[in-house]
Amino acid sequence: MNKWITSALLAGALVSGQFLGQAMAQDDKDTVRLGIDVPYEPFVMRDADGKLEGFEIDLGNELCARANLECSWVEQSWDGIIPGLLARKYDAILSSMAITPERERQVMFSLPYYNTPSVWITARDRDIDIDDKASLKGLSVGVQRGTIRDVYVTQEYGDVLDIHRYGSSQEVVNDLKSGRLDLTFEDFPIANDAIDFRQEDSPYKQLGDSIKTPTSIFGKGAAMAFRQRDKALAAKFDKAICEVYADGTFDKLMGEYFDYDLSVRPSEADCAQ
Amino acid sequence: MIDLQGYGPRLLEGALVTVELAVLSLILAVVLGLLTASAKLSRNRLIHGIGTLYTTLVRGVPDLVLMMLLFYGGQIGINMLTDQLYYAFDIDIFINVDAFVAGVITIGLIFGAYMGETFRGAFQSVEEGQMEAARAYGMSPLLAFRRVRFPLMMRHALPGIGNNWMVLLKTTALVSIIGLTDMVRVAAEATKATHEPFLFMLPVAGIYLLIASLSEWGFAKLSKRYSTGFGEASEWTN
Amino acid sequence: MDQLNAWFTQLLAGNAIFTANTLGFYWNGLVTTVQLVFLCLLLGIVLAVPLAIGRGSKRWWIKWPIYAYTYVFRGTPLLIQLYLVYYGVVFFNGIQDTIFWEVFKDAFYPALMAFTLNTAAYTTEIFRGAIKNTAKGEIEAARAYGMSKGLMMRRIILPSAFRRALPAYGNEVIFMLHASAVASVVTIMDLTGAAYYVYARFYAPFPAFIFVALIYLCLTFSIMFVFRRLEKRLLAHLRPRGA
């Protein structure tokens, strides 16, 4: 019987030791875990060895270096990315998250670091008029679940289009390519990267104009998100975002991944704080 | 090693996750099942009620929904508690439920309910005469449980445990939806990236079949052992 | 205490979640789930009866393929079967140009096909067990009446086997209801899909999933109730006298 008691005590000691260790790591503010939804090309993707790379990985590492923080990346699917932050599975989200009023109730945002429009995509040989709602009846559209594009399509086209919601942007593109979807509503860079719709010989094309409004849905651009109580941490990253814009590092990084402009230069007033 | 377009090693790691997850959840489920069975056999109304509520709720709701609830809600629930501690007593602890642990707890909790039913039936099939004999030999209650009631119960429980294990094994596939990197998730990722569903899904299906066949064989052996002394009867039931 | 209070008010204010709009999602989800489960069970039975009879055949080339089918489909997760059908059909180049595409284009039919194959495998084994356990006396009596094999199957063996299979089949129905939750991974807005959407939209796991869990509980209890009634009626002759 003694053996059992000893091992139970030992196990208890081990577990509490682990908690202590974690509690201490919490105090050590120099390490920050960043949550990100993978893949979201070219912002983040995984190479063959499973290593993360992409624009947001480079940008995030740069911001961390400037804020003098040790950063690690935590992978989290998009559906659970805000609950994961609130649940302290990581300390900030750096995952192309648009600032929206709905999300601002849950989390605190940094300054926006980029802004892109959303675009309607369809097969090049299809003749669809996105503004003529009656003609859209019964067509299928793919969006990533819980994104601003999901909200927009649900609100504006919920009564005519057959909306398919996917867990990842990659699945949306796959089902457009397989022919399951008539339309997709995509973030411009994702659509550009995955289906190259701006090329003349691409089998896909853009429908209508690029869409950035209403701001109540699309927000002011993508920003990092923090728990409401971590104001100091957010301030550090705001400062770093201002710095990468001021000294041209942002433009240099942007040039490595994009042949168009997605910058949202922070105002001097924002950076003065 | 089989390469599978570079995904081979990750697929094997995923298979290991599947097996670890299944075995650890099984252990938890057996422990919970024994507790539940005793609760449901208890004469105490309250304890009996708790046991019944647990098995009814768990068996009435899909595994996937329970999993999502515990996975997404579990950590937030724990944090609410620790936040209370922080605000009330200024104690700042953080208990991190990592995905794997959450998976084991969730599956264990689900199958604990099924195991509970299995064990309850099995305990009830043990003849009281056997226990009376044990007591007559002067065995302490604990010794009588370990030497007499438990082994006798196991003979009746084994087929049920075997069935539950097979279902549990397949249930582990659901953790891939929630974000744990088991072999199904690796295969799904690979399928989405390469558009070759058969190349990845068929080997994974094969691994499940292999594990299932091996366990079938293992349970047959175990069942033989626990049926010692019931020779003829066990041959009939087989 | 204040905190607890705030949490409660937030929970009530969180009633913003259950608007007519989201309740509509849940309702559509319920309809989809019921349709999917009902159709796959129906098709599953249609497939399972001949398969169960064939499974008991003395000819190895009938018996073994059926056994292989049930072994594979019962030994692998439904999720994998679903992935294989959903992504697998696209794998056949040019399917987009055939009439099959109209069916497989939607996520509903690939899911229905995977679920049907899965439940048919389980149902086959349930029926086979019941057929195997037919009382010898019933068969002898049928033979004595000079019934042909087909007539005996139709009039004697199958009806009595169906009755005996009822409790096990009831479990299979509940199992299928619960298993159908995986349909949400291929974009189907079934009950779980609706809950998942509400969760992803409002970041509120507790209300979204507890609500749907309650709906599933109600469905499960209704199925159990129906099968209890059926068993009572159809298996009355098996109850001990005076009970």
TrEMBL record, chain A:
Residues 31-261 form the Solute-binding protein family 3/N-terminal domain. Keywords: Signal. Its main location: other. The keyword Cell inner membrane does not apply. InterPro entries: SBP_3_CS, Solute-binding_3/MltF_N. Residues 1-25 form the signal peptide. It is found in: Cell envelope. PROSITE patterns: SBP_BACTERIAL_3. It comes from the Bacteria. The keyword Signal applies. Pfam families: SBP_bac_3 (PF00497). Belongs to the bacterial solute-binding protein 3 family. This is Nickel transporter. The lineage of its organism: Bacteria, Pseudomonadati, Pseudomonadota, Gammaproteobacteria, Oceanospirillales.
UniProtKB/TrEMBL annotation, chain C:
It is found in: Cell inner membrane; Cell membrane. Keywords: Amino-acid transport, Cell inner membrane, Cell membrane, Membrane, Transmembrane, Transmembrane helix, Transport. Its main location: membrane. Residues 30-227 form the ABC transmembrane type-1 domain. The chain crosses the membrane at residues 7-27, 33-54, 66-87, 107-127, 173-199, 205-227. The keyword Transmembrane helix applies. It is a multi-pass membrane protein. It comes from the Bacteria. PROSITE patterns: ABC_TM1. InterPro entries: AA_ABC_transptr_permease_3TM (IPR010065), ArtM/GltK/GlnP/TcyL/YhdX-like (IPR043429), MetI-like (IPR000515), MetI-like_sf (IPR035906). Belongs to the binding-protein-dependent transport system permease family. HisMQ subfamily. This is Arginine ABC transporter permease protein ArtM. It comes from Salinicola acroporae. The lineage of its organism: Bacteria, Pseudomonadati, Pseudomonadota, Gammaproteobacteria, Oceanospirillales.
